[in-house]
Design goal:
Largest sheet: 6 strands, mixed
Structural class: alpha/beta
Order of helices and strands: EHEHEHHEHEE
Oligomer: single chain
Distance between the termini: 28 Å
Strand order of the largest sheet: 3-2-1-4-5-6
Number of helices: 5
Shape: globular
Helix content: 25-40%
Number of strands: 6
Strand content: 15-25%
């Protein structure tokens, strides 16, 4: 009897990780982008669990996205950095932990600084596509190598 290949069950929830600057508070832009992603998720029949929004719980883009999620009834996961215990070095550590723990399908990067650049770089090097948003548009950044975090 031939071996039967088993497949992982399809993903039921689309995980979006949001990052951006602490001073980026353009809620109109953030809501517009996330509304578009949510509309796409809802159109996918296999994503019966909808969407989950993940962020680093910082002021600015993260909390604006959290406000959007609350208004839209989207589940969230907040990952607070341990600034008191680890200082500034915890930003990149927390970013890597979010990628490993949450296994996002997409990272949405709003305008920001070093932390946003670090999250974008870590996502791409882990095989996660990044939607980079500007004030007037955006672009998709595709990873140059396959995903290193298993979707399970």
């Amino acid at each position: 009897m031939p071996a039967v290949a088993t497949q992982s069950p399809p993903r039921l929830v689309y995980v979006v990780l949001v990052c951006g600057g602490r001073n980026y508070t353009n809620t109109t832009r953030i809501f517009y982008v996330l509304d578009g992603i949510l509309a796409w998720v809802r159109a996918q029949s296999y994503l019966i669990g909808g969407m989950r929004l993940v962020h680093g719980a910082a002021r600015g883009a993260d909390m604006c996205a959290d406000l959007w999620a609350e208004r839209c009834g989207v589940q969230t996961a907040q990952h607070h950095a341990d600034w008191d215990g680890l200082g500034k070095r915890d930003g990149p550590i927390r970013n890597g932990q979010m990628l490993v723990m949450e296994k996002p399908d997409l990272v949405v990067a709003f305008p920001g600084d070093k932390g946003t650049a670090d999250m974008t770089a870590q996502a791409l090097s882990s095989g996660v596509p990044v939607m980079q948003i500007t004030e007037h548009g955006g672009s998709m950044l595709q990873p140059t190598k396959p995903r290193t975090t298993n979707r399970g």
